[in-house]
Amino acid sequence: MLMTKFLFNALKRFPKLSHFLRSVRDLVDQNKPVISTKWGFTLQGNEAMALGQFEPDETRLVRQILLDVDILVNIGANVGYYCCHALSLGKPVIAVEPIPRNVYYLIKNIERNSWSKQAEIFPVALGSESCILSIWGSDTGASLVRGWAKIPETYVQQVPVLTLDRVLGSRLQNLRALILVDIEGSEFTMLQGALATFENNIRPIWMLEITTYQNQPCGIAINPNFVQTFEIFFSHGYRAYLADALTAHELLLADVIKIAEKQTNLKNYNFIFQ
Description:
The structure is a single chain. The chain has helices spanning about 1-15, 15-30, 45-50, 55-65, 80-90, 100-110, 165-170, 185-190, 225-235, 255-260, and strands spanning about 35, 40-45, 70-75, 95, 120, 125, 130-135, 155-160, 175-180, 205-210, 240, 250, 270-274. By secondary structure, the chain is of the alpha/beta class. The strands form three sheets. It has an eight-stranded mixed β-sheet with strand order 5-4-3-9-10-13-11-12. A three-stranded mixed β-sheet has the order 6-8-7. Helix 9 (about 225-235) runs antiparallel to helix 10. The longest helix is centred in the first third of the chain and has 15 residues, at about 15-30.
């Protein structure tokens, strides 16, 4: 325990050492084995994902929805877990992922499974406008929100930011799309740059993780944009559902407010909008 605390304080005081050690870790990480998954594709970069231990309920639901859409847009694509699921089902993908370590595996996993011509990859973050921002963390926990999940402030890098409307343009206008979002607290800001996407001829299905009290920075008791995030969807004619079922557990604005006020407890914070 004392050794762990000593290392943490040392890395906090010497950010260049912290950066060097992470670079060494990433080089060692790249020699980890490629794993054949039960879904018929190989995956490298996250053992839990490859072994089917990552979000099993969400995975089943995503695969079910993918059968009824033409394309997957994966925002916060990480190493390409959900992208590979979509591609294995014959669905092309647009993947958005800003962390270089994750982009490395995202490209490798798509190329190794011979899907290079069915995927577009954007190594950027998404926000309300085009700019450059700091992002903290790596792997499955990187966030544009400073202090998110107690990520050390020394664990930071700068990334380019675009809007989703800029990335997609008009290419989804007449396609049935699933937009899958897992971006650790930045959902509301991202949606500010997606207003044109809401008006596509065929409205996309959205699936987002939106937390309330979990992982918030110190001093912030609740996600300040939780209710507002739902209001964006409601204002564009969407209906909200818990991600454990597509045809039940619809959430009205009153239900969302109860969740925000901690009057309702949820098992997970993944939501579907359609």
